[in-house]
Model the fold of this input.
Amino acid sequence: MEPRPSIRLSGVVKRFGDLVALDAVDLDVASGEIFGILGRSGAGKSTLLRTANLLTRPDSGTVEVDGAELTALRGRELRAARSKTAMIFQHFNLLSNRNAAANVGLPLRFRGTPRAVRRARALELLDLVGLSDKAKAYPGQLSGGQRQRLAIARALASDPAVLLSDEATSALDTETTDEILDLLARLNRELGLTILLITHELEVITRICHRAAVMEEGRFVETGGVPDLLASPGSRLGGQARRLAARLLGEEVAHSAAPIVPGGESL
Done:
């Protein structure tokens, strides 16, 4: 008997007026897996992610997270089940008037955790994400990468089983993006954290995801293991990867062939 997936969406439909944002979507994400959803703006990725913890309730279909059917719950029961998930966002959503430790401890404060316990947990998590020396710093004093690390630490404060990532690296430069993705991969390995992420950046999928789906017009048009999709001649994801590689190779060739001016710089 196969283990129950950490996240399961079955026949999920969501409409906004005449727009079908999610068209009978099925999704299984295994416990401890990093699953990526790739798609253009308007494909339905953000609606799907918000449906996965019922911030957006579907019109039909079921959503299960960590064994609980969220679509069958309301009120206090739903809030308790939803606490097993956490989210990180493109623009961090930090409180500018609270320092790093206070931002991390905020979810625990809402749960009535004693101040000393909150403080100790916040410092532990800041150390985990590489911000042990920034406990007293405010978000405005941090770089973009540091703010996303802080947001990740805050998301982990309630000890979630599932982390939902909404374009979490889209506002970051390439080097910082790689650092954040490597941090997520490490948290996945060390904590057994299940991660469901959405992105329009192919590099995010290929760098850390175990499996992925390509989304178009509210549907998955292909799903599979990332190595398998990259190797498949007819795969949309593989096709994107090959086009990107060809473009980068062309740029490299063009740069190496550029004339050299005195001083050693190419034109």
Summary: The beta strands are 7-16, 19-29, 34-38, 60-65, 68-69, 85-89, 162-166, 194-199, 211-216, 219-225.
